[in-house]
Amino acid sequence: MSMNPKGCPQFMILWGDGINCENETLKAVEEAGGRGIKTHVSDLVERPRLLQEVQGLIVPGGFSFGDHLGSGQILALKLEKFVGDELASFVKQYPVMGICNGFQTLVRLGLLPDATFQRSCSLIKNEQGHFVNKWVELERNTESPCIWTKKLPETLSLPARHGEGRFVCRDEEVLFRLQSQNQIVFRYRENFNGATDRIAGICDPSGLVFALMPHPEAAVHEWQLPFSGRAWGGQFFKSAVEYLKG
Amino acid sequence: MRSLRFTVHSRLDHSAEQSLRKSFESLGLVTDFQLAKVYWLIEKTDGAFLDLKLTEKLDKIFYDPISEDLQKGWPEVKGQENFVEIRFLAGVTDNWARSATEALALLSSDPHQPWQNFPVEVHSGWQILIQGDFSKNQIEEVLYQGFANPLLHKLEITGGLHSESLKRLESFESFWLAEQGGDLELKLFPLEFAALEKINQERGLAFNDQEIATIISYYSSAEQKARRQKNGWDGWVTEVELECLAQTWSEHCKHKIFAAEVEYSEENSEGNLHATPSLGNKKITSLYKSYIQKATNELESCGYLVSVFKDNAGIVDFDENINICVKVETHNSPSALDPFGGAITGILGVNRDILGCGIGAKPIANMDVFCLSEKNLFPAKDSVDRPVLLKDPSVIFRGVHAGVEEGGNQSGIPTVNGGFYFASNFGAKPLVFVGSVGVIPKIIGGLPTELKQIEVGDKIVVAGGRLGKDGVHGATFSSLELHDNVASNVVQIGDSITQKKLLDFTLQARDLNLIRALTDNGAGGVSSSIGEMATLCGGARLDLALHPLKYPGLEYWEMLISESQERMSYAVAPENLERFLTLAHKMGVEATCLGEFTQSGHFEVMHGEKPLALLNLHFLHEGLSRMQLQAHFSGPQSENEFYRACPKKILGPANAERVGEVLEVILASANVASREPLVRYYDHEVQGATRVKPYGGKTQQGASDAGVLELSMHGGAEFNGVAVSNGLCPQFSHYDTYLMAQRAVDEAVRNLVATGANPAKMALVDNFCWPDPTPKKSNPDASHKMAQLVRACEGLYTAAKVYEAPLVSGKDSMKNDFIGKTQGGETVKISVPPTLLMTAIAQVPDTRKVIQSYFQKPGDLIYLLGRPTESLFGSVLSQEFQISVTPPEYPNLKDNKKLYSQIFKASALLASCHDVSDGGMMSALSEACFGNWLGADLDLSQCSWENLWSETGSQFVVSVSAENKESFEALFRDYAFKIGQVTATETLKWKFATQTVQKDLKALHKGWSEGVRHVYES
After folding, report:
1. How many CA atoms lie within 13 A of B303 on its CB side?
2. pLDDT category, B976, cuts 50, 70, 90?
3. Is A100 a catalytic residue?
4. Are strands B32-43 and B81-88 parallel, antiparallel or unpaired?
5. I need a labelling partner for B554 at 20 to 30 A (CA). Which of A186, B135, B334, B669 fits?
6. By C-alpha distance, which of A85, A191, A223 is closest to B688?
């Protein structure tokens, strides 16, 4: 595993094409002891081998291509066409995280719930039919193999900020598999958007590829909370850094 | 040529379908209903579908097999079913289609070609199947209530799909064909008054007589004649020149009323019951220079003003690393026609103002304030009083709300502050204020970033969206009153994602030192942006033939003044041009070099080799003669409310019981009820820097007074912040706008102070929205409205001076009137009340000391800070109940200033601090309970009934922990009135007169938290 001289894991943070949480994600990674490299989607498309220079990948939140034709749809098409092969091998070795629009993109790419480029789940419009920005309480599945969440408590608060975050599965079988393999990493304590089984975040069976709707990168400092409490967002990135450091 | 039509329908999400179905069900029985997205694909070159293997790719691009169905061709339509297609009119921006084309291009064999040249044309729209007995008119009526807009969409409605209608619908290929306007022609107009006046009327150019005379005399001079001879224009003005002058000289761009020479006089107020401050009769040359600029000049010694009034936004120094920019705009006229489009282009436009500030700033926060009518204050659908042309207030509300939501959220800019204000006279022209705050590093490439410098030979580059007919005449249109004959092309569609790419690109180019100067293409299009930038070096030559077009058929003048959105203009040094263009292309932004900056003293517009306009820069920008206006203040007037359905309630005798009853009504009233259900639609914490969010506390329902942003997230110093707030008090305008303006300033400042911001480091932005104050037949009281403007300026000036808060940016919108017919055939005129929105920003030097607006813990003591007032003038109590009111108290600005700086110094002593505004003290106290769900035990026996509801004071509700009691009381001896204690009881309890009464927080909270939902729905 090639890390930079200081032994500090490097994370590629995608931006451009309507992604809009790249700066706070970068800060969160760096504060967690990782090194963040902001990479424009067009740069990655031009040089897919850039992925070989990093040990982690984060697809941040935003509105890639305006969510037209479905959230994450066009970004997923673009990544699959130009970076598909490189992604296929990357996700087998390194931590990958999708936040909000990044979750939608990974699901459309078919990298979640299984890193096979086959779609079996979707994130559709919230039950209430519109965007909602609200801090929500999450329950963590401590049995999950997810490497991004090892250091987190069983419940925590994060800001949810999405209009299309209602998780659905193609069929009962997919859901059953998610449940039985502990791929459901987070559930909403209160099912605010109508998600199947209150699902807020999932991982692939290896635990390397993980995504969630709420935003850990906006819950790194206590002052970011709208009420008194602890900020757990930084721990997601710390978990990944520690995993990579071994 | 082949073509294809298919629909996409969600199997799982029916939210939009359900809400539309509900609207139909209010008219009759609906047994089945389906709403589906439609796509039309048309080959531009033969064989494109085949080359693309299109049919294989539909699945990948256009739908999600997990949750949606894709159906090619036509649906089966049963007996009574109505079939509806909603298409965009030709030339209207279709964002979904644009993204789909981009996706198709990505999957083609040449994925790097510009999507605009792609050989397949895509259109998107909706298909609706309605099983039920509805007439065509009924269907149109429902769909035009917000789902579609006749200015943008074509509705195809057929009862069933019989062969005849199918035949028409199937030949959709020709529907979007652009007019092939023959050869382009440059019209020349003779320099004769009658001829030019005719063109002025026909085209809505908004010139007045004097301006036409100025144009004639200028172009008739010997010098001009000689210069123009070589183009054959001697004795003529070209169409392009005339249009360019109309844009540049429009009230919207030139602020002629604020620059006018004004003769002010007033009724002698002696012996008058109303003691409005006398200004004395006087002559004022330019209200802008005499009040607004003057206040700022006199406050320049504050030391933190970096750039004021001259740029797209004001720039101040609140941080050691970065400067702060602030700008607020209005988008009233566009929002009246197309509320969604008007609001979204408004917010995107003000973001571009920030982007175009200095050499490019980054927007970090948005705010928006809407002044609208509501159900009870607007005639019902079937009423004879209902103005025929006006949109229902609920349609305007939903549109503007959705527009700001989409514009802000998709751009990744948090909406941190704002408001909704409801009054009947906003029923015709809604006021839509959109603001933005930005940051810019102080130095880039060794140069101060606020400096725009253009050298002769620098290239003119335009980047972003292409040119279309959208937004042609926006600047001149908004300089006229709203009337029946509005051309559809003044409506603009926003495209957040094109703008987001433009924003990313511009900041990248800035950091690489590729930009010398830039500005937004807003009102007037390139005619304004390049016309203005040209003054920085003394000339510009522009070739319109180089500007990419959305479709053919634009006239020369349309190219010059089109307000097609999401475009910026740049000055780029010739040696950087290639890098600039390459970077743009890589980041998915179309950028084109259109010419260069010169020192000719002229703005020269060409189309290829053909000259179109030769405009002397001095004449273009300074040629306008000053308007002369009369202003006479006739004293306070009675409120002239356009409409009210239910009369105000009767108020019983004042006692402790009554306090509770009245409080419930007030908390649930339109102007007090919580905006939280609406604000949750906006992303208020993207970028991760929003420290004080619109609603906070354990319940996330504690209403904050101001938004606070942590600047360290944007390159600023650690724990340094900026607070943003607004003040708006049009309820005082009919009494005295001097008072209205001071109250607006005071409210904005109070909000900052309550949050812990430093009142010694503030900056203000003024936005005036006025009824037309210029004389004409339809405007008999013009001189009073002009006097109201003078008095507002005077009030603003005084308040800014006393508070030592310089004005750094501002804008005015002076034609907020409507004249039209009611359904009963009467002519009605509706004008907005004179309205001044004050936006204030201030530094929060230690963000760890910000103060929340809601109570923090049981046992804390509750005080009222600031002197209680008696007048109920303009109060929510007086809007809800029939009461008589005494004249309003005027704020004691000097006293307030002392109190505010005291609060800042003592912020560590305050557990919470909440501004007393709409609804008065009782509603402020209730709101302070809701944030952390704490109760209060109050002793109001020293308060008069009026004290509880008056809104003419400058007060705060604060809570202080018991251990700070002594130091607090010692510091605030003259200002603090102890009124009770925070409790853990979930009740609000008060002693008033001699009686003690209590209410469950739940009961008070219910009306407050749900009230806003009842503004439009029963």
Report:
1. 3
2. very high
3. yes
4. unpaired
5. B334
6. A223
**Chain B contact for A189 (CB, 8 A cutoff):** no
A22 catalytic? Reply is: no
Using a CB-CB cut-off of 8 Å, the residues of chain A touching B99 are 65-66, 68-69, 74
* Cα A86 to the center of its chain, rounded Å: 18
Contact in structure between B819 and B828 (CB atoms under 8 Å): yes
Tell me, yes or no, if A146 is annotated catalytic: no
Query: Tens of pLDDT along B611-631?
Result: 999 999 898 888 888 889 999
| Cβ pair A224:B685 closer than 8 A | yes
Task: List Cα–Cα distances, B816 to B327, B331, B832, in angstroms.
Answer: 21, 11, 6
Please report the pLDDT score of residue B844 as a whole number: 98
Distance CA B924, CA B988 (A): 12
Total residue length of chain B? 1018
Q: Which residue of B has its CA nearest to A40?
A: B587
Q: Using CA atoms, how far apart are residues A13 and A35, in angstroms rounded to an integer?
A: 10
Among B170-179, B254-263, B301-310, B907-916, which stretch is predicted with the lowest mean pLDDT? B170-179
User: How far is Cα B673 from Cα B666, in angstroms, rounded to an integer?
Assistant: 8
B322 touches chain A (CB under 8 A): no
Averaged confidence pLDDT in chain B:
92
Length of chain A: 246
pLDDT in tens, A137-169: 999 999 999 999 998 999 999 999 999 999 999
Percent of chain B with pLDDT over 70: 96
Please check whether residue A227 touches B, CB under 8 A. Answer: yes
DSSP output for chain A: ----TT---EEEEEEBTTB--HHHHHHHHHHTT-EEEEEEHHHHHH-GGGGGG-SEEEE--B-GGGGTTSTTHHHHHHHHHHHHHHHHHHHHHS-EEEETHHHHHHHHHT-SSSSSS---EEEE--TTSS-EEEEEEEEE-TT---TTSTT--SEEEEEEEESS-EEEESSHHHHHHHHHTT-EEEEESS-SS--GGGEEEEE-TTSSEEEESS-GGG-SSGGGSSSSS---HHHHHHHHHHHHH-
Q: 3-class secondary structure for B901-946? A: HHHHHCHHHCCEEEECCCCCHHHHHHHHHHCCCCEEEEECCCCCHH
